[in-house]
Every structure is written in structure tokens, then in C-alpha cells.
């Protein structure tokens, strides 16, 4: 544990130094926790930890994320039916005629399940690859605030194109509508991805408090913990995300009752509020100015070290990576003052890259988690389409996921987590993430069992349940109420609280100050990797193979929960040290003054 330790040379000097307690006839040393405001190690271990007050600017940024997520889920949640299903009888814009709304499903392009899955997966992949673009621009040119502001305009333009793709004139030419849809996905993904790597760290850096003691009105002395405060900020940030996600509720009814161009227009209008929200807090945000090519320099450090140790033999290369001194080739001190010109950093920066890689390697397990999540993002909507709807749009059910998160977040933040801390149970990030994998696995098992019974009870036993139709072309559903599919959505919501929210917290707290965008982009890249894996699984992401697909993901996620915990359980013991990485003011680049590049407020 990082601590400040000071001792007096002699009791006779009777000098009371900062950081030391001197008792007559004895010498007692107090160990203060580094970067704290007078908190000792003993106090840190024995006093109750609570969160600090959250800054109002953090809530403004959460409002930006709320509006962005409303527009994202208010459109992407409709892509399944919009692409998969054909225009309902008598419709030109995708809406279901009033006489058929009890059983009918909105649709437009009629491209089928497999193509719908591929396009949705491409959208998810591209959204989570582009965070590196936003991180590079924010770090090198604009800073986070300007980057978010500029790419908000890009997203808005993408929404306008999307609305154009869904007009009756466009849908009369399916190839034109499909082309405009893909263009809008491309434009919005660039904007949304570039924002994602900056909004998440920006909301947390609005809090600038330090570890300190405080006496409550009850007389109890507690530790005001930045770690718990950041955890709470991300819990409420994720709650804002899921409040925005519920925008898809209205979108489902708008598409069914008024057509897709109306359903896409409403999120576009809501997103128009984002520039206003950004402008309101412009003088109060804690803004991180550009600090140099952090991502580029990070990759250069890794490239130098890997290049010096590279072997085509994977076993030999792994041994080289694990060997002490792996990072030495990138350190200027290795060259005794004659470092190559391409080494523009100092030894401290190499050390931060090393420690950040060690701390954030936990994210490499996340693709399996996001593979489980991807099933509720589309495939379970197809499952719901083959069930008894009774007037409920099949793509409405997936909103139970954000609704369950909205309900559960305050319970976890106000009741469950404080209660565990009172009982002395260290429900650390590693344990929470492992629990998230396990719960996601349970959700997939539920989905597999449901799909088995859906096929067993469908009126079309030799046909796909979602395509089972009556003689007049309306759906002929299995006698299973659509709300039975709510279980996987709720369980995945709980899994997100354990794993996804904790991953945001982990990425922020474990990254050095100037590398937070890098680590956040890397954490989000795991979703893109999951989407790429889904591309490889396109042939089995079809309805007649859902049962085995869900079961395979459920078993894999459960196994990964155990592997994850036993692989990273040692990181629990180093939690505080990992949180201290890069909290100092050194710039890390050769030639820069110490303290440059710190967050500025209102500039």
C-alpha cells in the first residue's frame, strides 16, 4: 500500500513532524495514505467508507448521455423488425393497420433474420471501434469537451439520413432505403463511438475530491472515499444511459402505429437538445485539455517492446513477455543518454504503460459477456415475435432490460453495496465482474429453455415460430405469453450492474490521469471484438439454431466467471495501489514541464 512514512531522529529533539506521532519515551510512526488528506492506514482499515457529494456538472454530462442513448436505442432497437420483416399488409411506411395491431408486427425492408442480424452486428462493431478515433482526437487536438461537441453534430446528421431512409418514397425502393440506412449507421457510429471514449471519463473527472475523514452529524467519523464516489457516479451514469434506453418504448409504438419515419424522427428531435446541454455547463465543466498523442505514444511504446522480444513461437514469446525487463527497450535510460529519436517519452511514461496494461488486462475476458448481451439486443426480439403478443409490440419487451437497471441501480447503490461494506464484505470490482459473467450465463440458460418450449408449442412445428402465419398473412403465435421472455432481459440487466458498470469504474480508476481515454477506448473495444465474433457466427444466429446458441453462450459465460475470478483475484489485494496509478502531476513526455496538462475548470 502506498503510504507516506516519516520518523523523528530522536525523541529528545521533541520535533513533531508531519506524518509522525511522537510519544514521550517512545517513538510511534504514523503511516499516511498517499494523496489523502491526513488519512492514516489504520483509519483507512477501520473506519466506515462512504461516498462524497457528486458535482452538478456530472449530472449535466449524464443528461447528454441520456439524450444520446435515447436516440441510439430509440433507433437501433427498431432495426430488427425494420430490416427483417416485410411491410405489413396495406402499409407504405411500416405501420400496422389498426385492425391488425393485436397480432401484427411492424416491418419495412423484408431482408430476413440473417441479414438483419448482420447489419445490427455491423452497427455494434463500428460503434465500439471508433472510440479510438475520438480518444486520439481528444488527446491530441481538441480535448474531451470539444470532441464531444463536434461529434454530436455528426450524430445529428446521421439521424437526418436515417429519417430519410424510412419515408414512404424511400421504402417504395427497398435498395435505396437499405443504402441510406447503412450510410446513416456509418455516420452515426463515427459520432457515437467518438463520444463514448470521452463522455465516460469526463463525467468522473468532474469529481476532484481526495481521500479524507469527516465527522457526521451523528458523531461518527467516516472515510470520504473517492473510489466509492466514482463507483456511485458510474452507477448513476449507467442509470442515465438506461433511462435514455427506455426511449425505445415509445419508438416501438410509434413504428407500429405511425410508421418508421415518425419513429426515427422523434429521437432526432430529442438529440437536438444535446448542444444546449453542453453549452449550459461550458463555464463550469472540469475540462481536460489535449495532452499530446497519448494513444499513439502508448502503441509506440508497446511496439518497441514487442519488436525487441518478438518470436513466432507463441510459447517463447509468452515467456519473453513475462520475463523481467520486457519494457526496458522503450526506456530512455536504457540507452545511457543516446536514446533513438523516436523515443519521445520518459521512463515514467513507460512505467505507466506497463502498469496500465497489467491493471486493465481484465477487459480481455469481456467479449463473451457482450456476446451474451448481444442476444437480448436482437435475437430475443425474434423469439418474442413467435409468441402470443396480445397487442404488445415484440420489440417492446427488450425495454425491460433498461427498466430493470433503472430500478436496481438505486437499490444497489443505497442498500446492497453499503450493507456489504457495513458487514465488512469486500465486494471488489473483480468479484462484481465475475458475478456479472455468472448472471449473464443464467440469462442465456433461461433463453435456451424458453426457445425449446417455443418450438415445442408453435402451431408451425416444421417452420420458424416468428414466421408462422395464418391464411390471411398475420402471425400465428405459439401459446406462450410474450412476457415470459422478460427473464433474460432482467437477468442481463443485473449482470450489467455487476460487470458493465464496474468495467467503466475499473477503466477510469486504474488508468493514469492522462491515459483514461486510452483505457476507456480499450475497454469499449471488447464490444467490437464481440461483434466481430458474432459476424463469424452469423450462420448460427438464425432462429432454428437459437436454442443451442443460447445454451452455448450460457455455459461459456458461467465457465468464464470462474476462470476470470481465479485469474485476477490477486488484483483485489492491490486495489488501492492500482487506483493510485498516475495520480501525480508528471507529464510523462520528455521536454514537458511537470504539472502541465492537468484538468482545467471552466476553460
UniProtKB/TrEMBL annotation:
<feature type="transmembrane region" description="Helical">
    <location>
        <begin position="233"/>
        <end position="254"/>
    </location>
</feature>
<feature type="transmembrane region" description="Helical">
    <location>
        <begin position="433"/>
        <end position="455"/>
    </location>
</feature>
<feature type="transmembrane region" description="Helical">
    <location>
        <begin position="145"/>
        <end position="164"/>
    </location>
</feature>
<keyword id="KW-0812">Transmembrane</keyword>
<feature type="transmembrane region" description="Helical">
    <location>
        <begin position="489"/>
        <end position="508"/>
    </location>
</feature>
<keyword id="KW-0472">Membrane</keyword>
<protein>
    <submittedName>
        <fullName>Peptide/h+ symporter protein</fullName>
    </submittedName>
</protein>
<dbReference type="GO" id="GO:0005886">
    <property type="term" value="C:plasma membrane"/>
</dbReference>
<dbReference type="InterPro" id="IPR000109">
    <property type="entry name" value="POT_fam"/>
</dbReference>
<feature type="transmembrane region" description="Helical">
    <location>
        <begin position="176"/>
        <end position="195"/>
    </location>
</feature>
<feature type="transmembrane region" description="Helical">
    <location>
        <begin position="520"/>
        <end position="540"/>
    </location>
</feature>
<dbReference type="Pfam" id="PF00854">
    <property type="entry name" value="PTR2"/>
</dbReference>
<feature type="transmembrane region" description="Helical">
    <location>
        <begin position="396"/>
        <end position="412"/>
    </location>
</feature>
<comment type="similarity">
    <text>Belongs to the major facilitator superfamily. Proton-dependent oligopeptide transporter (POT/PTR) (TC 2.A.17) family.</text>
</comment>
<keyword id="KW-1133">Transmembrane helix</keyword>
<dbReference type="InterPro" id="IPR036259">
    <property type="entry name" value="MFS_trans_sf"/>
</dbReference>
<keyword id="KW-0813">Transport</keyword>
<feature type="transmembrane region" description="Helical">
    <location>
        <begin position="117"/>
        <end position="138"/>
    </location>
</feature>
<feature type="transmembrane region" description="Helical">
    <location>
        <begin position="546"/>
        <end position="568"/>
    </location>
</feature>
<feature type="transmembrane region" description="Helical">
    <location>
        <begin position="358"/>
        <end position="376"/>
    </location>
</feature>
<feature type="transmembrane region" description="Helical">
    <location>
        <begin position="260"/>
        <end position="281"/>
    </location>
</feature>
<dbReference type="GO" id="GO:0071916">
    <property type="term" value="F:dipeptide transmembrane transporter activity"/>
</dbReference>
